[in-house]
Every structure is written in C-alpha cells, then in structure tokens.
Amino acid sequence: MKTQYIAVSALLSLITFASTFAQVVDRSVPLKKLDGEFILADGPSWDGGSALYIPDVKGETLYRYFPKTNTRTVVKAEIGRISASYYNHGKLFVSDNGNSRICEFDIHTKEMKVLATHDEKTKPNDLVVDNHGGIYYTLTRQGQVMYVGHAANGKAQIVVGKIQTPNGIAISPDERTLYVSAAIPKEIWAYEIKTNDELSEGRLLAKMDDGPERAADGMTVDRAGNIYCAGPKHVWIWNPAGKLLDKIETPQRPINCAFGGQRMRTLYITCFDGVYQQEMTICGRSSQPSQDPKDVRNTKFPSKVTRFGVVPQLDIPFAQYGERKLLLDLFSPALQSKGRPAVIVVHGGGWLHSDKSKFRALAIELANRGFVTAAIEYRLGGEAHFPAAIHDCNAATRFLRANADKLGIDPDRIGAVGGSAGGHLVGLMATGWQEKKLQGDGGNAEQSSQLQAAIVMAGPLQMLTGQVAERSRNQPDISNSNKWLGKTIDEAPELYKLASPFDFISKDSAPTLFMVGEHDKPERNEPSRDKLKKNNVWTGLKVYKDGKHGCWNQLPWFNDMVEDMDVFFKKQL
After folding, report:
1. With contact defined as beta carbons under 8 Å apart, do 307 and 373 qualify?
2. 166: which residues sit within 8 A by CB, 6+ positions away?
3. Residue at which a domain ends, from 258, 279, 300
4. The CATH number of the domain where 454 resides is what?
5. How far apart are alpha carbons 562 and 160 in whole angstroms?
6. Lowest mean pLDDT among 5-14, 209-218, 500-509, 525-534
7. CA 140, CA 316: separation in Å to the nearest integer?
C-alpha cells in the first residue's frame, strides 16, 4: 500500500511467525511447591485480589494463601469436609461434601448460607459458578450434574442425569459449554448450555490415555477456552476442540487446579502431597465483581457495580480464529432506543496482562451517560504476538457495525477509548484502519473498522522512536514490546513500524483526544498531535493535576476524566 514498507512477502513472513500461538505452559519457570502442610488440599479458588482459598478436605480447615509473601492464614478451622471452592461475584461458594450441601461461605462472619442440600448419602463433589450466580455441581456416586440458581432457595435440579462418576466441572468463557470429567473412564464430556438449567446431550470431548490408573479429577479453563483437568499423574490441557495441547507432570497425583496470581497467569495445583504453582503463558479468567454496593469498601477505585438504568450483557463472542473466541462485555442504557453512539473500551496492561474487567467501571459510567459501551478482550502477548491484538480490536469495531441494529447502535457513530497499552491500540485503530495487515480474519470482513472518534490515555503512539524503542534496545530482557512483537526493534524495524500509530496518521485518521496525568509525561504524544493538526484532524490534550499513570482508574481523577470523555464523544459522535 505504501512504498516505505518493505517487501510484502518478507513482512507477511514476519507476521505469520509473530501471530503463531505460544505454548500454554511457561517452561522457563519450573513447577514450584508452596510452603505449608496439608492433610489433603482440594479445590482452590482465587479471591479476585491477592489471595488463594485452599480447602483442606481431610484437615477440615479452610486456608487463605498470599503469594506475595508466601504465607497462609486459617480462615476457619473445623469447617467440615470442603471438597471444592469457587470465588465469584465477590462471594466464596463451597461444596460441603461432609454435610451433603452447597453453601455460600461469608468470609467476614465465617457463617455458611445453605444454597442446596441433599441426604447424607448424596455428596456434592466439585462446583462452578456462572455469570448469573447459578451453581453447577457434580454428584459422583449418583452419576449426575445439578444446577441451583442464585435465588432458587435450595431447589437444585438435575441437568445431566447419567454420566459415569462425574467429578471435575468447568464452564467455557462464553458460558455456552459445560465441561464435566468422568473420573473412572478418565473422560471429558461437553454439554452445550441451552439455558441455565437445560443442557444438550453430552459429547465425548477428550480421553486420558495414560494407562490403567483411574481419576480424572478437578477442572478449570483459561481465557482462551482451553480445558485443564487433573489426571493420575498430570494436569492435562486440551483446546476447545479436544486437541491435546500439553501436560503438566506433578510429583504426586493432582486433585484440582485454578488460576490466580496478580496477573492471573499462575496455575495452582492441589496434589496428594501439597499445593504447587506453575506459570503459564495464557491467563486464567477473572471472577465477576460483586454487585452488592455494600461490598465496595475501597474508596480509591471507582465502583464496578452496574448502575440502575444500565443493562449488562457479559461474555459476548465478537470474533473467532479457529477454536479461539474473543469476548466482550456490553453495557447499554436501559431505556430502549435505536441509533445510540457506541464506545469500545480497551484495557491496558503492557500488551501482556490484564483483561476486559479492568475498565468495567468506565464502561458502566459511559453507558449511564447514554453510550452503548463494549469492554473488549484481546489476545495478550503470551498467547499470540502482534498483530493479533490489533486484529481483535478492529474485529470488535466490525462486529458492532455489523450488529448495529440489534444492539441499538448507530453504525456511523463508533468511538474507542483505551489506557496505556490500550491507548496505543486505540491510536492504531484510529490511524491504521485502512491497513489490511491490521485487520485479521476474525469475522465481518465486509464491514469497515473505521472509528469516528478516539481517546488515548497515556498510550505510546511512536514505536520507532521514544521510550518503546529505547527500552527495546537498552533493556531487551524486560521490554514489553519485545515480548509482544516477538522481536527487538533492531531485529524487525518494519514490524515496529506496522505497530506504530504515528506512522499511519493521515487526513483520514479519527479525531483524537489525549488524556494524561500531570506526572505521566504529558509531552509523550506531542509529535502525534502535531502531525494530526498538519493533516487537519481535530486533536486535543487534557492534563489532570497530580495524576500518575493509571489515574483514569482511580478516584478522584476518574470522575473528571469521564466528564471530559462524555463531552468529547457527544461532540464527535
């Protein structure tokens, strides 16, 4: 398209290499055993913040482990035989195997709220909690899977009536498939979720083939939809089509597993001899935040509670590459209306971590002001190198445009806002929308990915010069761009140029507002603003007093920045 780019064949070769999916297990970091003795640790769960809940089923004790300090505390002793835990919606759900019931454990009062109960011969095993607060759980001896809604008052119903020794259980990221492990035959079964309490006939997805030893046990999924299951000697990992991707060998038989850690890239594995952790390349799924305003105790950050008058629709697939589905969370004004402006919300995280829930407060507040907002995920660097992430962002624009009527959106009024790495991606969406190499094949190819307005919050728009380039050369081992693009700037300058929004600025670029904290290098994108002005494209700068990097997700800056976003988008969209 442009003569300054290198030969197309060479560039496509680089892109093909860079877009290849990474291995799911980070073999550069060995399996590590956590400190602390357990009689028999079982189904763990991450608390959404800083700690891992670990039930010791035989020790009848619930622990809380803190990775940052490698310490643990007793949450409650003599709690009974808890075979599994699951943290979601700001609550800890447990399978109280010893007392034949499913409960919500109040982490403050240490009391159990019974959600479903069975006779003494019917023992719940593992459980998983959906976006609605409903719980699926296995009854191993009875060969059944049950479901109890969040407001069902103990009325559980059978959703799978016949499966041999059901044990572990997990839900796909788009919540369209329920996975169940059959312990004795060591099989993984998949059930399509028609409604919360109605499933399709099961289909055999995968089978462990490692000898006569029994036990397909606890399960989890990662954000790419890959399925993890504890077996006799390994944690097995399959993709959503049932293709075996990898196995993690453990010193003793694994029992269950869950993702956690500050970046959700640590897989915690409970085994017969304790608890282990293994770093992964693909992140796990973050839990849904509490929707109870009373649970919002930290006044430093804006609330993620969905406001009255805003309707959420979570985990909507918007693009697909083979078996990999990309998801967005949609927030719409409750009052029915057609032709509303839409805003795509792109999270930050150095291109390597974080997820769509990080900017949820922003998506909710903009929806409260009349915009339809879509907080999107994109493939991070551990999963796929550039240009995968920008392919996903542009696919989101095309998806909204293709489904505009159904979503109540005006297809000619779509904007985007992003912070840090998300700001860079929004800048590339705003300037590089005509470049075919940035589009990908995620779907809706007949639609344009052009934005009508963009907000960049402290995102670098120059990749060939400035801090990104300097770090790529001078600190190659810690450079995020090197990890994200898979090359240093000197190894692949043409790839960095393809990733550089500054180099795509033209008269067809979207009007762009830059937002930045006072202590976050307000001068960072001055060359881009100058170039936009030279091309007669509207641009502006808002600097926020005392603000540092990430101030857009903190109070009091959040309120002022949302107000300015509202004014800008209403003027431009």
Report:
1. no
2. 125, 138, 139, 140, 143, 144, 145, 160, 180, 181, 182, 183
3. 279
4. 3.40.50.1820
5. 46
6. 5-14
7. 32
Beta strand ranges found along 211-253 (DSSP E)? 219-221, 227-230, 234-238, 244-249
Q: Which amino acid is at 259?
A: F
Helix (H, G, I), strand (E, B) or coil at 276: strand
Q: Is 2 helix (H, G, I), strand (E, B) or coil?
A: coil
User: What does the block give as tokens for 43?
Assistant: 């189904």
Q: Identify whether residues 274 and 326 lie together within a single domain.
A: no
499 touches 489 (CB < 8 A):
no
* DSSP tag of 533: H
- Dihedral sign, Cα of residue 50, residue 51, residue 52, residue 53: negative
Query: Residue 516 above 50 pLDDT?
Result: yes
- State mean pLDDT over 430-448: 98
Task: Say if residues 487 and 18 touch (Cβ distance below 8 Å).
Answer: yes
Record the pTM.
0.94
Question: Which amino acid makes up residue 472?
Answer: S
Which residues, in sequence order, are CB contacts of 418 under 8 Å at separation 6+? Answer: 345, 346, 347, 348, 424, 425, 426, 427, 455, 456, 457, 459
Cα 252 to its chain centre, rounded Å, is 30
Query: How would you classify the pairing of strands 157-160 and 144-148?
Result: antiparallel
Give me the pLDDT at residue 299, please.
Answer: 77
Assess if residue 372 is contained within a domain.
yes
Number of domain units in the chain: 2
pLDDT tens digits, 158-193 = 999 999 999 999 999 999 999 999 999 999 999 999
